[in-house]
Every structure is written in structure tokens, then in C-alpha cells.
């Protein structure tokens, strides 16, 4: 990862760090998963809970992951152990780091399948496949694609291969620097798409669906989905942000940096929602269509707007790029762990880890066709892995981190490191010690009680 020093012109370690952290945070989670989860979980009930979860739970955990990483200057497992021992606590806190890496391993397997969809759509859109199509037709194209295991396999393999090549060659820093251009590019294309959706689609209904409070639709499942997605989209609970924190200078303001990263991440997700839902309603599509939502709706825009073929290809290039800066952050800690614990070098460690993850990804992609009947606890393999990680592993490791930070660390040193005084510190204490952990615990209890 890149932490170019201030001597490089406009580069500062803080800016390099923001690029790396935002590169990991912004990805398929914002543009593919956020809209589809919103659609499945009842619109505004999900959006509003998600925003609350980001502010009250996501931000404190993000800051604490960075702080722990910065203190320890070590990988996530050793970092937890180091800080725990420093605080006079048990070294077993390190297991949180290990569960996190396992989560990254599982997530990457299905993340790569969806990254493959984005790559395929880059070529499909660029070759004009969607010219003049309506929602029914784009839906048929997408279903045909899902049924074609060979194509899914090809693109999953290409995406995973690219991720492995980047990590094996250690060029992640270069990619993060490139995201200086790609990220604003993505925001720009999204703005155009929001403009198209708002002018040609059902913007009013979309805004109502996304933002008009509908408290009665909120239930335990919606809150858990929103909580899990807050972790997923900010790359929390996997030790990734802890690992990035190890590269942070002492002078970097953690809360200010968190605000920048979180604002960018959230804005991009909301823009994706405002690009997609006006088209969903004006084309009478089902908001709860599931993982295919953006692959059915956005092609309508690309097939019917002037310059849509070029803009569509550009959009999927930028989306694939954003997905790669996230996927490499998922692979990196797995490889680093293997490198450290086995005699394998970086390249062989990447090959071994990447191949196992790829294989698990094949099981996920088959759940869209040949293996759709195989169920694990009532879900197909893809859904099972997604739920296991987002709804259980990430919130639980996040809970562990926030409990450790709020109850087992010296609060005075945290206050100094965060530069908090007076009322700001009081708010931080209440949120990190009570609100965040209790909210996560309450969600789990409410689900256990049915
Ligand atoms: N945050 C990424 C996204 O929203 O696409 C996905 C992700 C990356 C999840 C890294 C978890 C992670 F550790």
C-alpha cells in the first residue's frame, strides 16, 4: 500500500492513506450490493438504519481498527495481541484478527464472481448489446448470463487472476494511485446516470422509496442486514483497516480521516441508489429482484441514452477497477498470513491462497445455475457465504473490537490519540462504550428471540 511522504509534491501520507482506505471501502458493496439490499429489505427502512449504523457503529470501529494498527505497526493478528499485552490484557484477543482474515477469505470467493459479472458487462455494454432494450429484455439477457456457467467461470477466473497478479507483484500502491483518477471518474459517471434516472425515470417514487421514513417496516432482519452492510461497505471486522493503520503516521487525524472516507463511501452508495431506483419504478421492475438489480436496470440507461454504449463501457471499467482495489485488499492479508506462517514466498503464497478462494468461488457461481438446488440452512451457496460473513462474522468481530477498545483499553491514551476534549470526548465515550456495542448485542438478541 502506498504511504508516499509529504516530500512528493502534493502527496502526503494522509492523502495516500485516504486513497488506500477508500480504495478498499468503495467497491461492489456500494454500487451492486447497496441498491440490491435496499430493494430486498424494503427501501427507506434499510437506508435509514444503514446510515445510523454507519455513524454510530461503523465510524467508531473504523477509527479503533486504525488506532490499533497504528499503535502496533503489525499485521492484524499480531496487532491485536500486541495492543492487548500492552494494555495488560490476555493475548487471546489475537483470535479476533484470525477470524477477520477468515472472513476476508470467504468474502473474496463470492466477491470475485460479481467482479466477473462487471467485467462481462463491460464487453456486453461496449458492443452495443443493450441498444434500445427495455427492462424485460435486459432481464432476459441477465438471466441467460446467469444460466451460462461457462461464462461465469471465465469471468470469475479473469477477475481472480487479475487480483492475484496485483497482489503477487506487490503493485497495490500503483493501483491506489491510479484510483486518484478512477474514483472521481466513477463519481462523474454516476452523476450522469443519476441525471438520466431523475430526468427520464420515476425520480419521485425512487426518492420516496429510499428516503421517506417507514418505521413500521423496520424489524430485526432489516437492522441486521443494515448493520452487516455497514461493516461490509467500510471493510470493517476483517482486520483490513487494522493492517492499513500500521502504515499511518502519528500526526494523522483519525477522526477527520474517517469522516472523509465514510462520506465518500456513503455518497457513492446513495448515488448508485438514485441512479437505479428511478429506472426500477419507471420500467415496472421488481425492487426486490436481488443480486441482479444493477445488471438489469443500468443497461436500460446505456441502451437508450445518447452515447450510452461508450458511457456504459466506461462505467463498467470504473466499477471493475473499484472492485479490484477492494478485492486486492481482501487477498492481501490472507497472503501475508501464509507468507508469515509457512515457508512459501509471496508469489507461491498468492497462488495457493488465490486458487483455494477461486475454487470456493466456483461453488458460488454454480449456485446460480447447476447447483441452485444445493441448500445450506435454507440458502444457496452464494447466499450462505454472503450471510455468514456479512450478518455474523463481520458484526461479531466488530463487536469484539469495540468491546476491547471501550472496556479493555486505557481510555486516556485513546482520548489523546484522537485529540478529543470536553463534550466531543463525552460523546465518543458514550458511543464507543455503550451505544455501539449494545446496538450490536441488541440486534443479535432480538434475532435469537425470534
Ligand atoms: N468494502 C468493499 C465494498 O464495499 O465493495 C468490499 C470489502 C472489501 C469488504 C474489503 C470487506 C473488505 F475487507
Share of residues in strands: under 5%
SSE topology string: HHHHHHHHHHHHHHHHHH
Morphology: globular
* CATH topology call: Hydantoin permease
Cα Rg: 21 Å
Number of discrete helical segments: 18
| Total count of domains | 1
Unreliable residue runs: 1-11
Arithmetic mean of pLDDT: 92
CATH class: Mainly Alpha
Bound molecules: 4-fluoro-L-phenylalanine
> The biggest beta sheet, please?
none
Give the fraction of residues assigned to helices: over 70%
What structural class should be given to the helix and strand makeup? mainly alpha
Cα-to-Cα separation, first versus last residue: 43 Å
Number of strands: 0
The CATH architecture assignment turns out to be Orthogonal Bundle
Q: Could you characterize what this model shows?
A:
- It is a single chain.
- With 450 residues, this protein is an all-alpha fold.
- The protein is built from 18 helices and no strands.
- The chain has one domain: Hydantoin permease, CATH 1.10.4160.
- Residues 1-11 have low confidence and may be disordered.
- Helix 9 crosses helix 12 (254-282).
- The protein starts with 12 loop residues before the first helix and ends with a helix.
- It has helices at 13-25, 28-40, 44-72, 76-86, 94-126, 135-147, 149-169, 172-200, 203-211, 220-233, 240-245, 254-282, 293-304, 308-341, 346-366, 381-408, 411-418, 422-448.
- It is globular, with a radius of gyration of 21 Å.
- The chain binds 4-fluoro-L-phenylalanine (PFF).
- 4-fluoro-L-phenylalanine binds next to helix 1, helix 2, helix 5, helix 10 and helix 14.
